[in-house]
Amino acid sequence: EVLTRLEADAVYIIGGLVDHNKHKGLTHERATRAGVRTARLPIDEHLQMHQRRVLAVNHVFEILLHFGNCNDWTEAFMRAIPQRRGAHTRTESAHSPTESSTEEKRGPSVSDAPAA
């Protein structure tokens, strides 16, 4: 599932465990097992990134914060993701296409659960 909007009455949990070997997918697995709805940020729909798309927890938080203020994913991504990550908007990257690996197609997960 892709996160398209933020709901005011939802609680958002940012999966912060990154281990590409032993614990890969652990946060998502635990959320699914607990019945918590999960979603990924719509990075593929708005950006082309030349590096892996694993983001630091603080960057995911900033993206959600910016999106909550501007309601524009592209603007939120561009404001929060550091320039060194090589992120370009889809319209900018249309002029310089690059191949993306299977690993790049997976985005960071953001889990949300309704507030109690």
Automatic annotation (TrEMBL):
The keyword Cell membrane does not apply. Keywords: Methyltransferase, S-adenosyl-L-methionine, Transferase. GO terms for biological process: tRNA N1-guanine methylation. One of its GO terms (molecular function) is tRNA binding. One of its GO terms (cellular component) is nucleus. Residues 84-116 are annotated as: Disordered. It is an enzyme of class 2 (transferase). It catalyses: guanosine(9) in tRNA + S-adenosyl-L-methionine = N(1)-methylguanosine(9) in tRNA + S-adenosyl-L-homocysteine + H(+). InterPro entries: MT_TRM10-typ (IPR028564), MT_TRM10-typ_sf (IPR038459), tRNA_m1G_MeTrfase_euk (IPR007356). The keyword Transcription does not apply. Its EC number is 2.1.1.221. Residues 1-88 form the SAM-dependent MTase TRM10-type domain. PANTHER family: TRNA (GUANINE-9-) METHYLTRANSFERASE (PTHR13563), TRNA METHYLTRANSFERASE 10 HOMOLOG A (PTHR13563:SF13). This is tRNA (guanine(9)-N(1))-methyltransferase. It comes from Coccolithus braarudii.
